[in-house]
Inverse folding.
């Protein structure tokens, strides 16, 4: 207490000394913000302040309310690129966004759609659409978060680290060939890339560039962090819509996938019982992340941010000697980053960015991407079942669209419907985790094309 | 000149799917190789076979007592037989 008081006295003396010195030196014509004397402040205020009547003050205050701004707009408002924001986006657009955000809250809370991400994203969107507050500006809270870790693609990598620390590659290692199913499901990405290109070239509905097509199609990878990573690298202007589409469709996996899986398989195929998997040594699990790294170094260095973070998390877990670090990655770190990632992505749900025809296009292409990925995985499963000597239930191919572990659970559920007691969960986890690697590889390919 | 979006994207698709499959195929082979090497040369010190069903402490104690009795009996038998 005493020390603080002494420090304050010293600081006060220092300040008075500095201000008198500046007055004597005659530098008061151009007072900088930090070294302003009290007399300067008084003079500055007298120059700018005008005394108003109470009525006028009321009117002026009303002009700073949200009601006024939502009705009349803010003349001269510009976005971060310096383009004027349309009157619609400032008024009705914001109100429509509030309704959409209400819908997202409903989906997250009442329907349980990926609430861990949709809730922060939606709240970020709510904050981003507040008039006058400029939350998304470079000095606003959301702007700071966005520039801190989304504009530079940092947060998705931290999430990937945590996902790596949570992933168990045991099921994949016990039946390595199921990794190919995780590859086939990446057709969802590239097939919808062609679909997006067709939509832009042959229909007047949307007009995407190649980069935009690529970042939309990555929704088919069914992997939130990868989608955000690619979108912020290739087309940050579409980030909000892409993230929302990716997470909503991931939540809809139990609705989207089963009809496709059933349409492409016969009841006999769905009843196939797979042989029990072999036991996996601890050392295999330990070496696996290094093998993946080695492959990335040799073939696709462009994918190393994603795969590197993922492999690091997994290696820390499997090493068994840094449990403190791996627990941190799986829990506190991933939770903190999820908050920031959600709010930062939400900041792009601004009316002037989100209420554009492209958003609708993104939603349609994203859905096609999920469907195509599921279908390709199942078809590959059928092919492998024909060629392989061990029986393979084609349903597990559907788990190749990452979305860990939801897709694997859906497979298990559909399998159990066809033949009660047939538990496919562990078999489906193999393609499921391979799908994560597959979509990271696909992301690396797309990045390397646009390098 | 306008970029032929569809043509370009089909090329991307061919490249992308090829890379993904080659990557995962090599990964599958490496996984098999690694499993073979580890199985053959570095078998896990703690095999993954299910651990023996733990016995209740009382049962355990009984078994130990039985073993001691048997051993003592055997020892006495051999001792007496060597003397005699």
């Amino acid at each position: 207490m005493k020390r603080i008081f002494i420090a304050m006295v010293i600081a006060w003396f220092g300040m008075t000394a500095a201000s008198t010195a500046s007055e004597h030196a005659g530098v008061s014509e151009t007072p900088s913000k930090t070294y302003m004397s009290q007399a300067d402040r008084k003079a500055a205020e007298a120059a700018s302040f005008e005394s108003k009547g109470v009525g006028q003050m009321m009117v002026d205050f009303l002009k700073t309310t949200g009601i006024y701004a939502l009705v009349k707009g803010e003349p001269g408002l510009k976005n971060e690129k310096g383009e004027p924001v349309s009157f619609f986006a400032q008024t009705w657009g914001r109100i429509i966004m509030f309704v959409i955000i209400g819908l997202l809250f409903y989906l997250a809370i009442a329907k349980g759609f990926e609430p861990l991400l949709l809730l922060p994203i939606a709240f970020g969107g709510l904050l981003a659409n507040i008039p006058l507050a400029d939350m998304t500006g470079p000095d606003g809270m959301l702007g700071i978060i966005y520039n801190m870790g989304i504009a530079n693609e940092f947060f998705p990598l931290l999430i990937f680290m945590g996902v790596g620390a949570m992933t168990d590659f045991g099921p994949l290692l016990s039946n390595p060939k199921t990794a190919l199913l995780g590859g086939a499901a990446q057709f969802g990405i590239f097939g919808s890339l062609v679909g997006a290109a067709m939509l832009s070239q042959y229909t007047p509905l949307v007009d995407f560039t190649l980069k935009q097509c690529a970042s939309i199609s990555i929704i088919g990878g069914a992997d939130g962090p990868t989608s955000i990573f690619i979108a912020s690298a290739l087309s940050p202007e579409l980030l909000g819509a892409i993230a929302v589409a990716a997470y909503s469709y991931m939540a809809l996996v139990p609705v989207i996938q089963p009809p496709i899986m059933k349409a492409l398989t016969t009841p006999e195929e769905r009843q196939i019982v797979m042989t029990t998997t072999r036991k996996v040594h601890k050392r295999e699990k330990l070496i696996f992340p290094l093998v993946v790294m080695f492959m990335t170094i040799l073939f696709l260095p462009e994918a190393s941010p994603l795969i590197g973070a993922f492999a690091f998390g997994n290696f820390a877990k499997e090493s068994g000697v840094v449990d403190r670090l791996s627990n941190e990655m799986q829990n506190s770190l991933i939770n903190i980053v999820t908050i920031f990632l959600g709010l930062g992505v939400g900041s792009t749900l601004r009316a002037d960015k989100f209420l554009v025809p492209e958003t609708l296009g993104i939603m349609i292409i994203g859905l096609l991407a999920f469907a195509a990925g599921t279908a390709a995985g199942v078809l590959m499963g059928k092919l492998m079942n024909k060629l392989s000597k061990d029986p393979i239930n084609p349903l597990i191919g559907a788990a190749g669209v990452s979305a860990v572990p939801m897709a694997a659970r859906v497979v298990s559920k559909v399998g159990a419907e066809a033949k009660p007691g047939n538990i496919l969960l562990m078999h489906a986890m193999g393609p499921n985790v391979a799908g994560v690697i597959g979509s990271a590889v696909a992301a690396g390919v797309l990045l390397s094309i646009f390098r | 000149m306008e970029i032929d979006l569809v043509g370009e994207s089909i090329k991307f698709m061919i490249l992308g799917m090829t890379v993904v499959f080659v990557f995962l195929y090599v990964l599958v082979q490496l996984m098999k190789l690694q499993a073979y090497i580890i199985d053959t040369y570095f078998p896990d010190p703690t095999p993954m076979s299910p651990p023996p069903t733990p016995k209740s402490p009382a049962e355990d104690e009984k078994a130990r007592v039985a073993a001691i009795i048997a051993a003592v009996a055997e020892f006495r038998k051999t001792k007496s037989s060597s003397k005699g």
Summary: DSSP finds 24 helices and no strands in chain A. Chain A touches chain B through 46 residues (CB under 8 Å). Residues 18-29 of chain A have pLDDT under 50 and may be disordered.
